[in-house]
Design a protein that fits this description.
Blueprint lengths: L15 H7 L11 E3 L8 E5 L2 E10 L6 H14 L3 E12 L5 H18 L2 E9 L7 E10 L15 E5 L4 H10 L9 H8 L8 H8 L4 E5 L5 H13 L2 E5 L7 H10 L13 E4 L4 H10 L4 E8 L5 E5 L2 E4 L13
Parallel strand pairs: 4-5, 9-12
Antiparallel strand pairs: 1-2, 2-3, 3-6, 4-6, 7-10, 7-11, 8-10, 9-11, 12-13
Helix pairs in contact: 2-3, 2-6, 4-5, 4-8
């Protein structure tokens, strides 16, 4: 009998090597209706049901206690939209610690309702319970979407030579969480800086921009960087596409508020939770067209890298140095002492 390797885990994502040996080999029966199976960097499952193509995503909200209802709907909708599908139906499991007041549950559901209505999503159902062994509410969402034109994108579809575009700025979600949940550590920063940083939570949806560019010719793949930040998102995109990648750190936009907060807390903004940003792998000849489309929507966009042969490796170019780009083992949000 083969001896399994054992690993103890830190808070955050399970390491890719562990997923490959202890998760992905155990996926039940094969089904020809499944178009995209689980894999590293694949945040949505895609299947054909009759004449329709449906997209599924599930994600928990564990990195914050603030506005978890809003975050759950948006984060799960983002994963659907990166495939070019429109999010339509949402379910969730809400786990509450003993002693939670009804007002907490009520506020979570009010946020779910508001965020769902804003995205045109119906809440189908879910489950709620009080659970021993947890110290704060945990919300696990599940979103279903439908490809409007039958064409879907996958993070595994990046092509050799594709340019990589990044929308908005690195560390958006992480900055908002730090400003809301760790304000006591940021007391030396101005109130206006903290207020602006908290409002970054209003930018974490990428549904509109993803759907706007998904149908453009030359767009091959999209991915939203979440845990591990922009760097992990770029690594995942390359890994899913089985390609190498070159990334230019100085071209990644970082908001002044993110820089200030990360400087105080000694965190790397490129490895900070980045929901709200969108990575787009696009054919070089189409990059200008995609950029123009996004900027017309008042979405900032910058070219931050390109996909290369796998044999050439995965590298980050930063401050004149060529650094091997690896999966980020732990989001900076969880590195706070």
């Amino acid at each position: 009998m083969r001896t399994l390797k054992t690993a103890s885990f830190n808070v955050g994502k399970i390491p890719p090597a562990v997923l490959l040996r202890s998760v992905f080999p155990f996926l039940g029966k094969k089904d020809s209706a499944i178009l995209v199976n689980p894999g590293i960097g694949r945040d949505a499952a895609i299947m054909r049901l009759g004449t329709k193509v449906l997209v599924f995503s599930t994600d928990p909200i564990t990195g914050t206690t603030t506005h978890i209802g809003t975050h759950s709907v948006i984060i799960n909708a983002n994963d659907i939209a990166t495939s070019g599908a429109r999010p339509i139906w949402y379910l969730c499991t809400i786990l509450l610690p003993p002693g939670t007041k009804e007002s907490i549950l009520h506020s979570i559901m009010v946020e779910i309702d508001k965020a769902s209505k804003a995205l045109g999503v119906a809440v189908l159902g879910g489950h709620t319970e009080v659970t021993a062994g947890i110290g704060r509410p945990i919300l696990a969402g599940f979103m279903i979407g439908e490809a409007e034109h039958g064409r879907v994108l996958s993070s595994e579809d990046g092509r050799l030579g594709d340019k990589i575009l990044l929308t908005k700025t690195a560390g958006l979600e992480g900055t908002a969480i730090l400003a809301s949940d760790h304000s006591s550590r940021l007391r030396h920063l101005s109130h206006s800086t903290i207020d602006r940083a908290r409002k970054f939570s209003e930018q974490i949806s990428i549904v509109n921009e993803a759907l706007a560019v998904a149908g453009l010719q030359g767009v091959h793949s999209m991915h939203d960087p979440t845990e591990g930040g922009v760097l992990n998102g770029l690594w995942e995109l390359a890994e899913a596409s089985n390609l190498g990648i070159n990334v230019w750190a100085d071209k990644v936009r970082i908001a002044p508020e993110t820089l200030e907060i990360c400087s105080v807390l000694h965190l790397d903004p490129l490895k900070l939770m980045s929901s709200g940003s969108l990575l787009v792998a696009v054919q070089p000849s189409a990059a200008y067209r995609v950029t123009r489309k996004l900027r017309r929507m008042n979405v900032n966009v910058s070219e931050v890298g390109s996909l290369a042969p796998k044999s050439s490796g995965r590298y980050l170019f930063k401050n004149g140095r060529k650094i091997l780009l690896r999966a980020v083992p732990r989001d900076e949000l969880y590195c706070l002492r």
